[in-house]
UniProtKB/TrEMBL annotation:
<dbReference type="InterPro" id="IPR024072">
    <property type="entry name" value="DHFR-like_dom_sf"/>
</dbReference>
<dbReference type="Pfam" id="PF01872">
    <property type="entry name" value="RibD_C"/>
</dbReference>
<comment type="pathway">
    <text>Cofactor biosynthesis; riboflavin biosynthesis; 5-amino-6-(D-ribitylamino)uracil from GTP: step 3/4.</text>
</comment>
<dbReference type="InterPro" id="IPR016192">
    <property type="entry name" value="APOBEC/CMP_deaminase_Zn-bd"/>
</dbReference>
<keyword id="KW-0686">Riboflavin biosynthesis</keyword>
<comment type="pathway">
    <text>Cofactor biosynthesis; riboflavin biosynthesis; 5-amino-6-(D-ribitylamino)uracil from GTP: step 2/4.</text>
</comment>
<comment type="similarity">
    <text>In the C-terminal section; belongs to the HTP reductase family.</text>
</comment>
<dbReference type="InterPro" id="IPR011549">
    <property type="entry name" value="RibD_C"/>
</dbReference>
<feature type="binding site">
    <location>
        <position position="292"/>
    </location>
    <ligand>
        <name>substrate</name>
    </ligand>
</feature>
<keyword id="KW-0560">Oxidoreductase</keyword>
<feature type="binding site">
    <location>
        <position position="75"/>
    </location>
    <ligand>
        <name>Zn(2+)</name>
    </ligand>
</feature>
<dbReference type="GO" id="GO:0008270">
    <property type="term" value="F:zinc ion binding"/>
</dbReference>
<feature type="binding site">
    <location>
        <position position="84"/>
    </location>
    <ligand>
        <name>Zn(2+)</name>
    </ligand>
</feature>
<feature type="binding site">
    <location>
        <position position="184"/>
    </location>
    <ligand>
        <name>substrate</name>
    </ligand>
</feature>
<feature type="binding site">
    <location>
        <position position="221"/>
    </location>
    <ligand>
        <name>NADP(+)</name>
    </ligand>
</feature>
<keyword id="KW-0521">NADP</keyword>
<feature type="binding site">
    <location>
        <position position="204"/>
    </location>
    <ligand>
        <name>substrate</name>
    </ligand>
</feature>
Length: 363
């Protein structure tokens, strides 16, 4: 097998931990000796042992002289766990194949240097693109210190997210809706505007087995969220932030009593400053957010430049209706050349529906 083929196995292993490692990366590792995989592992959960140590522990024979394939550069620092480079040297691993350099300033190339200086043969950049994509969130968050925001919506073939009556249950089929719940597990936070709470009274939880709920973030400039909404009444069970520019002390106190955390954010025009909010949420350790609308918030998020990725679920239906809402509302752009551009298409078939994904082009 080639280095790329072994690395692919490590990438797949890493994905087992999706949603459990944030704000740490997902990492997979395998040990190969005489062409045979003798150990494999992945970083299973934030704070727990790293992929390399798990692979070494799982070895069916002595890893001395083996090759280690690991999706991310081995760490050389003491974090919640001791350096992986120590484990590599102690076990006399002969060669290390690295997917991508760790962007963490505590490591960023120093793990590779340390191993080379100690006489280990190191190859860097095998399946680099895949390994970087695997941790798009981690790469973004460690650099920007703000969450990676992915906008998600479900629409008909004619671009409607509801009928003209406002009814949107349901646009897509069951398989696509289950996929959305996987995203709610993968992303650490989920964000909607107050309008969506007023209209749908959603729970914004994750209803799949062996998953966790995202932290809920409601953008509510003027504190319109009803005290008896499902978000507020479940705020003691599921972490909930209300981001507001309101100074209404009584309303804030009422929400706090129900378990909501209030973040005060300055206004930018008529709505809250989303970049300011992202900074605050980044400081609180939130590395990723699934943005589920509605159209007003989606527009503001695009306009303020906080969106990195777009998931569009498309159902084979047509609703029509001049007043039926679309995924992105607001004022919109004036001329086609002002469009927000998307790149790196990915298409997945989900039953009769399609999921079309893109990254947002940043200048
Ligand atoms: C690795 N292998 O499997 C992972 C790495 O606090 P700690 O000890 O868990 O360290 C977290 C940092 O280590 C994290 O920010 C990232 O730079 C790196 N993650 N490194 O060698 C792994 N998960
Ligand atoms: Zn490590």
């Amino acid at each position: 097998m080639t280095d790329e083929e072994y690395m692919q196995i490590a990438v797949e292993l890493a994905k087992n931990a999706e949603g459990w490692t944030n704000p740490n990366p997902m990492v997979g590792a395998i040990l190969v000796k005489d062409g045979i995989i003798i150990g494999q592992g992945f970083h299973a959960k934030w704070g727990q042992p790293h992929a390399e140590r798990n692979a070494i522990t799982a070895c069916s024979e002595n890893p001395e002289g083996a090759t280690l394939y690991v999706t991310l550069e081995p760490c050389c620092h003491y974090g919640k766990t001791p350096p992986c480079t120590d484990a590599i040297l102690e076990n006399r691993i002969a060669r290390v194949v690295v997917g991508v350099q760790d962007p963490n300033p505590l490591i960023s190339g120093m793990g590779i240097d340390l191993l080379r200086k100690a006489g280990v043969q190191v190859t860097v950049g095998i399946l680099e693109k895949e390994c970087r994509e695997l941790n798009a969130v981690f790469f973004h968050y460690i650099k920007e210190k703000k969450p990676y925001v992915a906008m998600k919506y479900a629409m008909t073939m004619d671009g409607k997210i509801a009928a003209y009556t406002g009814n949107s249950m349901w646009i897509t089929g069951e398989i696509a809706r289950e996929h959305v719940h996987r995203l709610r597990h993968k992303y650490m936070g989920i964000m909607v505007g107050a309008g969506t709470v007023l209209k749908d009274d959603p729970r914004l939880d994750c209803r799949l087995p062996e998953t966790k709920n995202p932290i809920r973030i409601i953008c509510d400039t003027n504190l319109r969220i009803p005290i008896d909404s499902q978000i507020v009444t479940t705020a003691k069970e599921i972490q909930t932030y209300i981001a507001t520019a309101s100074a209404d002390r009584e309303a804030i106190e009422r929400l706090r009593e129900k378990g909501c955390m209030i973040v005060k954010v300055p206004k930018l025009g008529r709505h809250i400053d989303l970049n300011g909010l992202m900074e605050l949420l980044g400081q609180r350790g939130i590395d990723s957010i699934l943005l589920e609308g509605g159209g007003t918030l989606n527009w503001a998020a695009l306009e303020q430049g906080i969106v990195e990725h777009v998931y569009a679920y498309i159902a084979p239906k047509i609703f029509g209706g001049r007043n039926a809402v679309t995924a992105v509302e607001g004022r919109g752009i004036e001329r086609p050349e002002e469009a927000f551009l998307l790149k790196e298409r990915k298409v997945t078939q989900l039953g009769e529906d399609l999921l079309v994904e893109y990254n947002v082009v940043k200048n």
